[in-house]
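Lab manual, section 2.4: Encoding a predicted structure.

Procedure: take the sequence of the chain (84 residues), apply the prediction step described in section 2.3, and record the output as structure tokens. A sample record is shown.
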Amino acid sequence: MSGTTEEIRDTLTFILNKLQTIDTKLERQEEDIKAYIERGLVNLDSNELLITGLKSTRTSFELLRDEIDELQQVTVALLKRGRG
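Recorded output:
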């Protein structure tokens, strides 16, 4: 039984690490997009297009972060149950 618990713990730790990596990548991408827009190297029409894209991307990031938070909570709960 302890082998199964250890396997579950390893799997959940792997998932948690992956989720944290995804969150970090999303934050970097969002910062890169904002920096690109702030440089002002594009014409107004392109700026408007980029801002619209950024808003859409931000919404996607927020939804993904919500999912990551939920998965993180489930992972923590499973780890605690495995210990208990």
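Check your result against the sample. The mean pLDDT is 75.
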